[in-house]
Amino acid sequence: MALASATASYELRFDSGRLCLDLLATTHPEERLDAAGPLRAWIAGSGLVPADTPLTAADSSWLVAFRELRGHIGQLVRGEPSRDARPTAIALGRVNELAAAAPPVPRAVWDAGGSLVRALDGPPACAALLAAVARDLVELLTDPAARAGLRQCEGDNCPIVYLDTSRGRRRRWCSSEVCGNRERVARHRRRAALERA
Could you tell me how far CA 59 lies from the centroid of its own chain? Predict the structure, then answer.
């Protein structure tokens, strides 16, 4: 029950097109990962673990580690990483270090209804979950087609980076319902103000 309320109150988004970008989006419009509860909600909501996985070990140290990785993700996906830039080298080195850990081990198990479902081999460790996100970032950074689809939202003051997989690659906003709607409303108000003037 606490997980559901934490998710609802923090309005976590999982629509950027990549796990690592979904983590990056937790900074907007305000800090979303401000306690262990919202971090647990993000981990479960992102699909890193099956929904009913207990995350009792997630504490403030996990929060610090996920926020650190999030900072490195931002450093590497906003703009073009430079081989000669020291901040890029530091971020890339740390991401590669995190990606080296073994990710959570999935298993197929029977549920009460007789269906095969995904479960983890044991309680997930912070390093394993960070590895899964870091590996997603490594895949994104090393895939030229995926990198070409990275976009910064054109919404006013929206820092969200997303993967544009739309036809024609003409998507402008992280979310048509959020930033796109704000832009359409602002355009309508500008037109109405001009007509009145």
Answer: 19
**3-state secondary structure at position 84:** coil
Q: What is the pTM of this model?
A: 0.86
Amino acid at 163: L
Biggest CA-to-CA distance, the chain = 68
pLDDT tens-digit map of 153-162 = 988 888 999 9
In the chain, which residue ranges form alpha helices assigned H by DSSP?
Answer: 2-10, 19-24, 36-45, 60-77, 86-99, 126-142, 144-148, 181-196
Which residue's structure tokens are 């140290």?
61
Residue 41 in contact with residue 14, Cβ under 8 Å? no
CA angle 32, 38, 40 (to 5 degrees): 135
